[in-house]
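Recap for those who missed Tuesday's class. We walked through two folding examples back to back. For each one, the amino acid string is listed first and its predicted structure tokens come directly after. Nothing is annotated here on purpose, so try labeling regions yourself before you check the end of the notes.
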Amino acid sequence: MSTVRAGAFEVMRGCGFDRIFANPGSTEISFLTDLPEDFEFVLALHEGSVVGMATGYALATGRPAFVNLHTTAGLGNAVGAIATARVNRAPLVVVVGQQDRRHLALEPFLAGRLEGLCGSYPVWTCQPARAQDVPGAILRAYHEAARHAGPAIVVVPMDDWSAELDGEITASPVAVLRTPSDPAVAVAELLPLLDQAVSPAIVAGAGTDSREGWAALVALAERLGAPVWQEAYGARAGFPQDHAQFAGHLPAGRSGLRDALLGHDLVLVVGTSAFRQYGYEPGPLAPEDATVVVLSADSDEVHRSAAHIALLADPAPVCAELAKRLRARTSVEIWNRATNVGPAVRDGKLRPEDVFVALAERLPTNVVVVEETPSSRPDLHRLLPARAPGGFLSAAMGGLGFALPAAAGLRMGDPSRPVVAVLGDGSSLYAIQGLWSAARYKCGVLFVVLSNGRYAVMDQLAARHGGEPPWPGFEEVSISGLASSLGCEALRVTTRTALLAALDGVIPGLAERAEPLLLEVAVSSD
């Protein structure tokens, strides 16, 4: 097994570093002793001079310089010079030593409280959560320093260097091409890759959720004959989900992700990072023989992607131009996926799927669906596809309490589009008071609350963990009653007949509706 130190030097070579500007201390010994012969050590007798010399070198060469500083004393002495480097737009990668990770909690001698010591002058700061993340953090610091023209700081505990490198994902692209104002450069880079790919696939993210983004990505997908996946836990839809080449939502675990992308030699990730996950799983993200390329206008998405190459550019014009210039495939294979047809709504206990099918059969194409129903999200994605740009929204961070007020704000901001918020009853309680504002300011949203009297997603996670949850249900809470008390019209339905009657009564006039309506639907908790 290789070490973190060896992996870091490999990353540094790939970045073009061949010298280290430093004034070392004991926390840097394990990094600097027996320095590889292809690196020159440049000593200065004070940390301000270290950073000052590196600043001049970076400005002269036009590329980031590498600095190594000693924990609190070294970084503290260098703060003024780091501030100067930021204002002078000098790209620096500053690796700062720290005491041994294994007893940092005891605050041993030389343990540094380094976070925030330089104020807001660094363009990026990181202390990797694991020793194995150090090489990737140095690579990302290089990209951040180059992109933002300033010092990027990585704090490395002294024992991290000798840790075994376990072959985990490096959370930064191998190479970044920055073409924010000239799509032709990105097109020239991507064109041969896509033309030569035998079986390309596309992953769409929130960054293409616009009319221009959808049109460009549709044209590109059809030209390539490639399946298009939606990123896992995407907060917005980056591609029409009723299109014949839409393949579904990517799994949020590594093994499922590898299975979904198996057989594709190139994966083009557009408008998001590679790849968003939820629960941790070991192993690579993509199949080993797949080249991963990221195209995004968001530098954070670009810099944290596990990709072979990442391009910082506006996806819409790049994809539109690629669609025009790519060679025509001799046979375009339309991706066949499972149909979105769901179970028929029936009498008896209603399930979330029954509600989604009923909504899908009635909602207009231009509807905006705002989602916050964690326990039934996969079924909602499957049965209620986004069919127009801006047609789907959920909380990007995953916390509850977003959807209810966001739906009211969406309706207020664009009253030309009908808005439906689909919520769990637990989710709705995090922002139930937002109904007062929706009623007061005449935001004509249909709030559909799936009511099972419990935090179903937490119960599912506890069962998956093999244990019993300690939290109680809250069946006694009346969501429709709370809505009425807040001035919002509300109905509670428990049967198929009542559900369909309620939807048929409100959806035809939803686009013109001024008053909000909360529809509490009692669903099975099984």
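Example two. Treat it independently of the first, because the proteins are unrelated.
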Amino acid sequence: MQRSVLRVILAGVLGATLVTLTVVVPGYGGRSGDLLHEYDAGNRALVDAKLAAQAEARPHTHNDPATKNLVSRAGATEADAQDPTTTTEKVMHATAVAAGRTLPAPTLRKVSIARHYATTPRNRYEMAGGCYALGRSGTWAARTDDGLTLTARKPGRADPLYFKASDLGSYLLYDAQRQVLTQPSSALPLPSSNRATFTDQPTQQGIWRITQQGDGFVLKAGKDAYARVAGDRTVQVLGKPTVFDLRKVDGCKKFPESQIDIKGAPFGGTTSYEEVRGYVDAHTHGQAWEFLGGGAHCGKPWDPLGVTVALVDCPDHQTGVNPLEAFLSGEPAHDPVGWPTFKDWPAPESLTHEGTYYKWMERSWRGGQRLFVNLLVENDQLCKIYPYGPGGDPSAKKSCDDMDSLKRQADDMYQLQDYIDAQWGGPGKGWYRIVKSPWQARKVINDGKMAIVMGIETSVPFGCTFKAGAGPGSPDTPAPECTPQHIKEQLDLVHGWGVRQMELVNKFDNALSGVAGDNASTGAVVNQANFLETGSYWDMQHCDDADTGIHDKDQYAAPSISPEQQDALFGAIGTLFGGMSTQVYPPPHHCNSRGLTTLGEHTIKALAERHMIFDPDHMSVKARQSALDQLEQMKYSGVVSSHSWSTEDAYPRIYKLGGFIAPYAGDSTGFVAKWRKHLGWADPRYYFGFGYGADMNGLGAQGDPRGADVSNPVTYPFTGFGGVTVDKQHAGQRVYDINVDGVAQYGLYPDWLQDLKMIADSQRGDGPALMTDMARGAEAYLQTWERASGIAPDSCRNPGLRKPVGTVRDLLTPGMTTRQVMEAVGQPYTRVDRTFGICAKQGADPNVRVTLTFDQQGRLRRVEV
């Protein structure tokens, strides 16, 4: 059956069973009426033609690049948008970027990640991932029946136990028969009934919390319950502990886990303060399993019981009764088995399944990523509409309040950090490091680890919703609690959590800003949720953008929702569960009349006062232009567009402010084109590096495969950044190949980057330039963050900031930290090994190079001209 016929059928079915069709013409009081009476025949024809064109342009296909690969996904189309940058400026900007690539690069070192296990663990964390025998007083625990008995005279004859960390200091004990030592479900009076036994599947009763006593260890099973050697030498769970000995042995079977398949040590810097290298993802939702009450997302980034529990499908998917996945995928059912087969999920177009399992993130780190922005996300109205809670149980649904959900996700980030630390041998040992300043992030990256920045993307931050005015000209009424003082208090609250990057809006207009909206069917249903939240539909007016091509999302409802539509999950939930109505607006193009409010201006000022990064994505054109006006007046560089939800007029302004831009990742071919376009916008006054916004975990479809039969596929194994060897990734029984699987999950981003290189090389031979700019991405983000923290731009790229040599010498004294030096003379032009390079002036010479040398700890030693 042809797709157009299917769309007509689907439109009819949805119209009859799910959607109440209402036509609303917003503005002038938000009048509603019949479309035929509101528009003349010419306008009706235009509307009909637009709807038909859009329906034909957006078939249900997993290779639709329409929403993935645009430079701006906020409304303006590339064909319409007028680039404000002249051809001469573009050449100058691209030339400056090329010159920046030739500057001295930082010296990188290999960071050892090998684990070395002592014969006896020195603390309660070191045994993670190790193989040990359990014993006491010279006898060792051997397996008898289904449990352990201390009968072996040598550790090598004991039952080897693999210590799989479930948290810091807590473990699953996994034996050579691939079973987990488990405490009894209930403690009965008779000691013989309390024997610890082996079971096939890990459960909460299999988690043992270990504490150290002297040279030995106590295994705690629960409150007042411990592993103890009974009189018959069996290991039981009783009220008093035995202090056990642990000895390293061989013979363990490793606990099931997804593989990395990257060989070679990760890279770090030679000092904690030099220029960093590494890729940056400025926008992903790593804790989206808490999103929408905890029931719409299947799988988790980790689980104390391991991968076999973390990567399972939702119960309602397994019974075949969940309509959301079927509606999004276009398939009546899918194979619900995650681990170990992963037949149907994760996949680039799957919006309801986990994509950022911690081992997949670890693979991206090993492949060169060094900065990850985790956006806490929620939408209270769609959460209320969605009927399921965790496990498919409506009664288990968690709070839909935006701030409650964001707090859960922030707590999850710290729990994940602890979990990863536990795998690597103790607090601070893991590669996942939540950072709260650019200086902390720089140290983490130069240590060879990944800096994790916490951010917010939610529809109603701080409870700052509003109710629309009752009639034409009536002002909106913000929620009573949404006052300037409340906003400051809430910013202090989330700042205390660790939040350092924030958007003001996501899906709804709120008391801070108007929203860009969504188009097609997603827009229709999210617009209805906007009405439920505010009492008003998006006030999208026809706007005359003939000179600029800049506008918000045009409001035409197509008859189907495909996962390639950005944020299609929102629309699918509304359509399936909300009884949504469709709004049809005046002829395009459309601009939201709601802009940046006084409260929004106050919020941006308060963000800057806290040195937080402001993200203008998802704002209406009117609001974003006002926000950038405000930032320009403030001379505030702390602005990042993280996933292509700004319009093209904004990008040059962001670069001129000293901000950072990371377009939506999408398909590899489309991303290469975005990179080339951004080169012409880059401002020569600032260090340039490039990033991407994956937007993974339910809010953005990932890059599709180009196919194994293209002329320039990714060939495995390949050499990745830092000299590592990247092979096809294995996860359980599944083997991933970027050529045929696309970015099925987060671990495929090193492969996607290699695909970018192959495409750029084949098109123009500029693959190395692209990879250099991507590797400079983390540094560019950190330099934007430094400027947001009050550090002036470097004086070499900005001659007007050059100080006399004598002034430089007066400002700098031995022993100053690198931060103190930058506070005095601005950002360095170069940061290589132990030296900073800056520019000054002296007499008739306007360009004097000054070298600042530091010791290993980052204290200033000398100033040389």
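Answers for example two:
Residues 1-63, 187-192, 557-561 have pLDDT under 50 and may be disordered.
The radius of gyration is 29 Å.
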